[in-house]
Specification:
Blueprint (H helix, E strand, L loop, with lengths): L4 E4 L3 H12 L4 E4 L4 H6 L5 E2 L1 H9 L4 H6 L1 E3 L2 E5 L2 E5 L1 H5 L3 E3 L2 H14 L3 E3 L2 E7 L7 E6 L2 E6 L2 E4 L17 E16 L9 E3 L6 E5 L5 E7 L10 H12 L12 E15 L2 E2 L2 E3 L5 E2 L7 H22 L3 H28 L7 H16 L1 H12 L5
Parallel strand pairs: 1-2, 1-12, 2-8, 5-14, 12-19
Antiparallel strand pairs: 3-7, 4-7, 5-6, 9-10, 10-11, 13-16, 13-17, 14-15, 15-16, 17-20, 18-19
Helix pairs in contact: 1-6, 1-8, 8-9, 10-11
């Protein structure tokens, strides 16, 4: 096979890049090791920044998003028995939209298949070669057959455990990483959300988050130890702990219902530099991971491929290579801003150490300042809804 851009990974980044390239008249093939059903139903992030919403609308992907997405103009910080609203839209003129990653993926797959886009699911044994030449080759096995895909460029959008990053020679990439001493126990519950906006709760027993996926489905999280066994958390224990950490404001109570899914996710920060080597361009979780506290993972991946889409269009349409050459430096400015914000939100809201009362007092002091200073609240809001320029 022959194409212009070979894309590895059918998550939001890879699929959106393929969609953007199609709109610019550039051919691509997307290779994904999982099944279509799996990628359309895996529950991941659910908050879209204003810029992500604008991008999806601008590229013809806004119809279902506008019908089913939940627009939020603020978030609530809950600590010390009080609730404090950060009025994001009032402070910044922008908002967020709650719309699950799996829904974005469904919309993208539908858009690509509607125009005959080449998507290969359940691909095995992917191998990259010739990345330092003008004609890279992706070899893989699909439906029992060995195949080769020849292309001009390769986009690695296959996550932190994919093959793309490992195809870069040793010594080229530098990793910057931070592991956090806690994890999130997340549940999806058939319970109507008890609030119209997200609630971030700081509590002596650990952080909790009240979110939603629809008017009938709640998404809730608890800070737990990183070695937590999900078997030790039956439903009754989960609901009890959520009530303890969230029901700290008089008159507010949590809605409960059957738990549909539950899992434990470790938390870390990671940046890999540079995000390009020769004809290989890396995007999304393949080169950066953020803790989920700031709701930035999917948004950062979409921002990466928006840059890549423009860069490939400039190359093919105008013969310019400046955007491709500058892709890594440009993307990394946003990546590090988002890394800082995600680290800051995580450090502010989670219980960091059981034996450090000084740290706990600093957290409370910062929370009081954030919720009483318009300037500080505006900074939080600007980062949360997504900075237009970085």
């Amino acid at each position: 096979m022959r194409t212009q851009v070979g894309i590895i990974g059918a998550g939001p980044a890879g699929l959106l890049l393929s969609h953007l390239l199609h709109r610019s008249g550039i051919d691509s093939v997307v290779l994904e090791r999982r099944s279509r059903d799996y990628v359309e139903h895996r529950v991941r992030a659910g908050v879209l920044e204003q810029g992500s919403v604008d991008l999806l609308r601008r590229t013809g992907l806004g119809d279902r998003l506008d019908r089913e997405g939940l627009r939020h103009e603020g978030i609530e910080l809950r600590f010390g028995g009080t609730a404090h609203r950060i009025a994001m839209t009032e402070l910044t003129g922008r908002a967020i939209t709650v719309y699950g990653q799996q829904e974005v993926v469904k919309d993208l797959i539908a858009a690509r298949t509607a125009v005959g886009g080449e998507l290969r699911f359940e691909v095995e044994d992917v191998r990259l070669s010739g990345l330092d030449s003008t004609s890279p080759v992706i070899r893989f096995r699909h439906q029992g057959r060995e195949e080769e895909l020849h292309c001009d460029f390769v986009a690695g959008c296959d996550g932190s455990h994919g093959v793309s990053r490992d195809a870069v020679p040793a010594g080229v990439l530098t990793e910057y990483e931070r592991q956090y001493p806690f994890a999130w126990l997340g549940v999806l519950a058939a319970a109507a959300p008890a609030a119209s906006e997200l609630i971030y709760a700081h509590h002596d027993r650990g952080f909790a988050l009240h979110s939603m996926r629809s008017p009938e489905i709640s998404r809730l999280y608890l800070q737990v130890a990183p070695d937590t066994d999900i078997a030790d958390w039956p439903d009754d224990r989960i609901w009890s702990e959520l009530r303890t950490r969230l029901e700290t404001v008089p008159g507010w109570s949590l809605n409960t219902g059957p738990i549909l899914e539950k899992s434990v996710t470790g938390m870390r920060s990671l940046v890999v530099e540079p995000m390009r080597w020769e004809r290989l361009f890396l995007a999304g979780d393949a080169v950066h991971i953020v803790p989920p506290t700031g709701a930035k993972g999917m948004n950062l991946a979409l921002a990466d491929v928006a840059l890549l889409g423009d860069a490939f269009a400039a190359w093919y349409d105008e013969g310019r290579d400046d955007l491709l050459t500058g892709y890594s430096d440009t993307a990394l400015r946003r990546v590090w801003r988002v890394q800082h914000f995600s680290w800051w939100m995580t450090s502010l809201l989670h219980r960091l150490a059981t034996d450090d009362p000084y740290e706990a007092k600093l957290q409370l002091s910062t929370l009081h300042y954030v919720t009483s200073s318009r300037a500080y609240a505006t900074s939080l809001a600007e980062n949360y809804v997504g900075l237009a320029e970085v």
